[in-house]
Amino acid sequence: MKKGKSSMAFANVYFIDGYTIAGKTEKEGPIGNYFDKTIDDYYYGTKSFEKCEQKMMTEAIEGVINRNQETAPEFLIAGDLIDHNGISNYVAKKFDIPLLGIYSACASSVYSMIISANFIDAGNAETVVCAVSSHNCTSERVFRYPVEYGFPKADCSTFTVTAGAAALISSKKSNIRVTRATVGKVIDPKTMNPNDLGRSMAPAALDTFFCHMEDFNLDDDYYDLVVTGDLSEIGSEIFKLGLKHEGRKLREYNDCGLIVYDTKKQAVKRGGSGCGCCGVVAFSYLIKKLLEKKYKKILVIATGALLNKGMTNQKETIPSVAHAVALEVEL
Prior knowledge:
Elements: E1 2-3, E2 7-9, E3 14-22, H1 24-27, E4 37-38, H2 49-66, E5 75-79, H3 86-92, E6 99-102, H4 108-121, E7 127-134, H5 136-143, E8 159-160, E9 163-170, E10 176-182, H6 197-215, E11 225-228, H7 232-245, E12 253-255, H8 256-259, E13 272-273, H9 275-291, E14 297-305, H10 309-313, E15 320-329
Parallel strand pairs: 3-4, 5-6, 5-7, 8-13, 11-12, 11-14
Antiparallel strand pairs: 1-2, 2-10, 3-9, 3-10, 7-9, 10-15, 14-15
Helix pairs in contact: 2-3, 6-7
């Protein structure tokens, strides 16, 4: 059901299960024990970084389907950061499931959940599998410089998460409901530094948060936790300053890029980023915290910088988008 300017409420949509596979650096981070599987290098027994990323997304999809064989998905909604959704398209060849390939940069995990929830709420599907992936080396090649160049990373930069994540969204009941969603607008803060994407994405995250709370007429303390996708240190501080400027106070706020890594102990600069960042944190750590009843209501705001290397080389600004989805424990 449509709510307000750009939001929707769902009556019978549930999060069934998530499966996550992450890399060595992610394994060494604070939530390394929450992933279903981890790998020890950037190749994972393949001949290229791209094949490694394909293998991770494939195994994440297979993992969540095999663990829930009574809930077969009718559609696959998948996204990644490689040109023309290269990873998702090649992975989809291996499954006899209709594909909707999506791109919302690092906001793709929540974007896929919003589309699947609408399919299910409208009665056009019973179960949908959502999948995202990112890889540190494939993403650097697409957006900045190949890692083989040994190009030094700027102090303001983030570290792309190497991970594949998949989730089953369904009308079949589970302990976690997908209750609300807000589709974000493209916001252009006029930033131009492709190494400082947290700064570029923070205004979009704030806009989506304010819109979500207004559309549903919610108090600031409604959610036990509000978590952004991959603003990391710089963007998270801007997000918090934006809340303070508007006199808003949350129960708890965090960012997936700061949950997946320890920036004080790991060489990840300002924290995590990438499609896999929000996906691997939300589909593992956050879901488990909901099931443990540490949190009962979480708002996940995935953030995406809508840039490519061609545009930044032409001195274009970096617009961004953020999409939000609410996950609540079924009492």
